[in-house]
Design goal:
Layout (H helix, E strand, L loop, with lengths): L6 H14 L4 H15 L4 E7 L4 E8 L10 E3 L3 H9 L3 E3 L21 E9 L2 E10 L7 H19 L19 E4 L1 E4 L2 E8 L14 H25 L9 H11 L2 H12 L4 H16 L5 H22 L12 E5 L4 H6 L5 E6 L7 H8 L4 E3 L4 H4 L5 E5 L4 E4 L3 H22 L15 E6 L6 H6 L4 E5 L1 H5 L7 H15 L4 E4 L26 H7 L1 H14 L4 E6 L5 H20 L7 E8 L8 H7 L2 E5 H9 L17 H17 L2 E5 L6 H10 L3 E4 L1 H12 L3 H13 L7 H12 L4
Parallel strand pairs: 9-10, 10-11, 11-12, 15-16, 15-22, 16-17, 17-18, 18-19, 19-20, 20-21, 21-22
Antiparallel strand pairs: 1-2, 1-6, 2-3, 4-5, 5-6, 7-14, 8-12, 9-13, 13-14
Helix pairs in contact: 1-2, 1-4, 5-6, 5-7, 5-9, 6-9, 7-8, 8-9, 13-24, 16-18, 17-18, 18-19, 20-22, 23-24, 23-25, 25-26
């Protein structure tokens, strides 16, 4: 074969001319494969496209039997072509028939050809098809020939992505790019979202693939890389981050990649082969992603995300792309590999219908914020960012942790009906907003809501909650890139009290540390962060942090009522130490003439089992106690809520835990101490019914749960429930579970669940 040093550039120029001509799609494909074969002096060039049913169909060929076009097909993983598509790796063989994956297709007439070079047609690391050249002679294709064919395949990937080939696919079939995809992930936020994909960091669509001046493109690349390196160095020096999770170690990895000579050499090579800077970045990024995407090692997968982000940054440098330029649809489903809480708040809340994450965990800051905003969330949806295109239809099922991308009409109809039913139920609950929460036998119950952001506050009146039983002050710290100053904290707390319009608000002091890491507050890694250096433990070790927050709370509540409580209390003495810090702040503000709250209530959260042996002292020490049922259950039952193997192993309505809760109620009643419970157990009608039967009269939950719980208690004869429930909890011999007792009681007594 002849020297190909200029081959790729000549080929790409001719392909560009073919793309511009007004040709029918099949004729364009036929001329493309003819051009590739001629340029590479190959006797065969074949173009296979992946269909939605997983078959690779021969769309065009030069050299094989023309009658095989649109008839020959291979499954993913079948034959040499199927192996290339499934592995996203090229195959370069001097004797194709000796390869174990070779599959004989008699209709093509390819048995006379020995050498074989096949490359995947990739877009965003995803296989869309395969491009093949063959020769009769036994030979290995040279590296520059492989590179030339890979570069050509990239041009064909864009042709597939434009949808032009849909015109020539047989009726009833679809290309893989538009096929429906269902992916199971982890359910992080309740509810359903129907809408259209908005990629959080959308791929830059490269429109100019082929360059006219190699030297000019190489200079553009050098300048863009220089700007990229400077921006990373700047972020490192100022310790500012553009997205949550990009801490120093990640930025150091970015700097390493940005200076990696292997990466830069591949970019330069692609440009010398005729691609523009942008197309070169996309090609190298797609090749790298295709090779790494199947790796199971979590460290390597994390490095892949780092590399992806770096390549996207370089593309934005080259194109001058500014995120958020296009308008958001009113039914946006945000799709992201990873994102920070602050970035989610940049989107208009009224337009967001759901959030889908490739990464994330139930404790991720962005997930906590999304749940607080009432947005359905599904995490660990591997590969979704590569599969999705902007404005694709998508459904998020936050109850079962399922995402349906480009759903079929039957699935869409089923979910639309679910959404309508849910909306009808919510409308019925809204009608109860002004109804007093009183049981059928006349016992008053207090229903409050949990919150942590200003966006939560409108739901106070909408839900009919009587107040905020838990305001998580740490969310302000999680979404900020630097430590909120005292005046910033004061401004938030003042706004919360103002919007509450006189309804009681219970502020929980900072619960950071452990797994709730904030970007500007670094602490040593811990083996068991949930039971480590967090919450009041951290605050007492860093009294300046707690005093700053207490000062902000006292100033914000000037002239009104302030209720604050301490999280993660383990010993009563911790409450006394925190009270001393509070008294110091009261004296400090008084000395400088600041107005103080009209009344002050000081409480503690009961989340750590050790307090069960200090209940009498606890009830005497505080004005109120709030049971944090999530952590208390986790610690009592030794169950890690983030561990799927054990998270559902024990029932929150099991006798051991209900007896613990009853013990707390008895102690509070004996001391005359106000008692509430905030946690997921309060937000479900059946478990809320159990709490009322145990003696709780004040419970706090998510705003969306207020309606269903109120509907339940309005239909409940509480005295009759207590009469049966307390003996059922105490009965150690009964084979009937407490959950079964509650279900039977609800059925027999017409309780609305």
């Amino acid at each position: 074969m002849r020297d190909l040093s200029a081959g790729p550039r000549v080929l790409l120029r001719r392909l560009r001319e073919l793309m511009a001509e007004p040709l029918e799609p099949q004729e364009r494909l036929d001329r493309i494969v003819r051009q590739i074969a001629a340029n590479m002096v190959a006797e065969v060039c074949s173009f296979y496209v992946l269909r939605a049913d997983g078959a690779l169909e021969l769309f065009a060929t030069e050299g094989l039997n023309k009658d095989a076009v649109h008839l020959t097909q291979l499954k993913m993983g079948q034959g040499l072509v199927g192996t290339i598509a499934s592995s996203a790796r090229s195959l370069n063989l001097s004797d194709a028939r000796s390869h174990p994956a070779f599959t004989y297709l008699p209709e093509t007439g390819e048995e006379i050809y020995n050498s074989f070079l096949g490359v995947p047609i990739l877009r965003a690391g995803r296989s869309l098809g395969v491009l093949v050249v063959q020769n009769k002679a036994h030979r290995k294709y040279r590296e520059e020939e492989v590179e030339a064919l890979e570069t050509t395949a990239m041009v064909l990937a864009e042709m597939i992505a434009t949808g032009e080939l849909k015109q020539i696919i047989r009726p009833g079939l679809e290309l893989d790019l538009s096929r429906p995809v269902t992916i199971e992930g982890d359910a992080y936020g309740d509810g359903f979202g129907l809408g259209h994909v908005i990629l959080h960091e959308p791929r830059i669509v490269v429109t100019e693939l082929l360059n006219d001046d190699i030297d000019a493109e190489l200079k553009r690349l050098e300048e863009a890389l220089g700007s990229l390196r400077v921006s990373i160095d700047d972020m490192l020096s100022r310790r500012e981050v553009s997205m949550e999770g990009e801490h120093r170690a990640v930025l150091e990895a970015y700097r390493m990649f940005a200076h990696d000579r292997g990466w830069v050499r591949k970019l330069e090579e692609a440009i010398r082969n005729g691609l523009t800077c942008e197309a070169a970045v996309e090609k190298v990024q797609s090749d790298t992603r295709a090779r790494m995407i199947h790796m199971t090692d979590p460290y390597l997968r994390e490095r892949l995300h780092d590399f992806d982000d770096l390549a996207n940054r370089l593309l934005r440098q080259l194109t001058g792309f500014v995120p958020g330029g296009s308008g958001l649809p009113q039914d946006a489903i945000i799709v992201a590999r990873a994102m920070g809480a602050a970035e989610l708040l940049d989107y208009p809340r009224e337009a967001i219908r759901g959030l889908v994450l490739e990464d994330g965990a139930v404790t991720s800051h962005v997930v906590i914020v999304a749940r607080a905003m009432g947005i359905p969330v599904v995490g660990q949806v591997i590969g979704i960012a590569s599969l999705a295109e902007n404005r694709d239809p998508i459904i998020v099922d936050g109850e079962d942790g399922i995402v349906h991308l480009r759903p079929i009409s039957d699935v869409e109809s089923a979910y639309a009906e679910k959404v309508r039913f849910r909306a009808t139920r919510q409308e019925q609950f809204r009608a109860l907003r002004t109804v007093e929460p009183r049981t059928r036998d006349g016992q008053d119950i207090t229903l409050q809501m949990n919150a942590g952001l200003l966006v939560d506050l409108p739901q106070l009146s909408e839900s009919g909650a009587s107040g905020i039983g838990l305001f998580r002050t740490e969310l302000q710290f999680m979404i900020a890139s630097t430590m909120p100053k005292v005046d910033e904290q004061e401004s938030l707390y003042r706004s919360v009290l103002k919007q509450a319009e006189g309804s009681p608000v219970t502020f929980r002091t900072l619960d950071i540390g452990g797994d709730k890491v904030v970007p500007y507050f670094r602490s040593a890694e811990e083996e068991n962060p949930a039971i480590g250096w967090r919450a009041i433990r951290l605050s007492l070790d860093r009294p300046g942090l707690l005093r700053t927050q207490l000062r902000a709370l006292l100033k914000a509540a000037a002239g009104t009522e302030l209720k604050l409580m301490l999280p993660m209390v383990t010993e009563v003495n911790e409450i006394r130490l925190a009270r001393e810090l509070l008294n110091k702040e009261v004296r400090h503000l008084s000395r400088f003439g600041h107005q103080l709250p009209r009344s002050l209530q000081f409480g503690a959260m009961l989340e750590v089992p050790s307090l069960l042996w200090q209940l009498d002292e606890l009830m005497e020490e505080v004005d109120f106690v709030s049971v944090g049922s999530n952590d208390l259950f986790q610690f009592v039952m030794a169950v890690d809520r983030g561990n799927s193997r054990v998270a559902d192993r024990f029932d929150t309505l099991g006798r051991p835990f209900l007896r613990v809760l009853r013990q707390i109620v008895v102690a509070a009643n004996k001391a005359g101490t106000s008692l509430t419970l905030c946690g997921e157990i309060a937000g479900k009608p059946l478990s809320a019914m159990a709490l009322l039967g145990l003696g709780f009269r004040n419970i706090s939950m998510s705003p969306a749960a207020i309606g269903p719980v109120k509907s339940m208690l309005l239909s409940l004869d509480l005295a009759r429930l207590e009469e049966g429930l307390l003996p059922a909890v105490a009965d150690t011999r009964s084979e009937k579970t407490v959950r079964e007792f509650l279900m039977d009681f609800a059925d027999a007594n017409g309780v609305s669940l």
